[in-house]
Write a structure and sequence with these properties.
Elements lengths: L2 H22 L11 E3 L6 H17 L5 E3 L2
Parallel strand pairs: 1-2
């Protein structure tokens, strides 16, 4: 998946979770959010995971319910 495609999928997932999940679990008053860190895979899996983890926390620090993408 291209970086643009991955960002589209993550945004669609984030949006749908926020809009639908509380209602589907019978708690329309419940706010459920999702944040994601997106980065291209590298030759070193540990580096990829560390970068994605860093971006995830960046998204959360930016207000939660966001996606952060490596450029």
């Amino acid at each position: 998946t291209s970086p643009t495609g991955a960002a589209r999928v993550a945004e669609r997932l984030r949006s749908q979770v926020r809009e639908q999940l509380g209602t589907r679990v019978g708690r329309p008053d419940l706010t459920i959010t999702i944040s994601a860190g997106l980065t291209p895979c590298t030759a070193d899996p540990d580096t990829t995971v560390r970068t994605a983890d860093h971006l995830l926390y960046e998204a959360k620090r930016s207000g939660r319910n966001r996606n952060a993408t490596a450029v």
